[in-house]
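Reviewer 2 asked us to include a model.

Predict the structure of this chain.
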Amino acid sequence: MVDAATREAAEAQLAVMATQFRPEALRIGADRMMALLNPDGQFSDADQARRRGLTIGPQGFDGMSAISGLLDPGTRAYLDAPPQTWVRITDYPSPSSSPPHSKSSKTAPESRSPAPAPAYPYAI
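Predicted model (structure tokens):
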């Protein structure tokens, strides 16, 4: 964790850098500063709670919506663990299914896409 005095000095330095550099260069400088101040990457729950969140963009003409945001480590682990269990039951062959050599109406991505996600155990 970074003490308050060091954090204030870093913020002042970033403010000066913001007047001298373009956003891309400022981002690189801020990342380097963070790597020096907190090399182990240890963040408090309050730090993570302040930054986490999701934004869902407007729905496009095709019905699709863009999504962006930041997940805390617990939510990321929850989402990483079960995708193989989200496969649709209809993706598995059954005795009444068509032979393997027959053509399916699904495209390759559709046949591999996960079923709708279950309700998440907690809000992000």
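The mean pLDDT is 76. The two ends are 24 Å apart (CA to CA). We have added this to the supplementary material.
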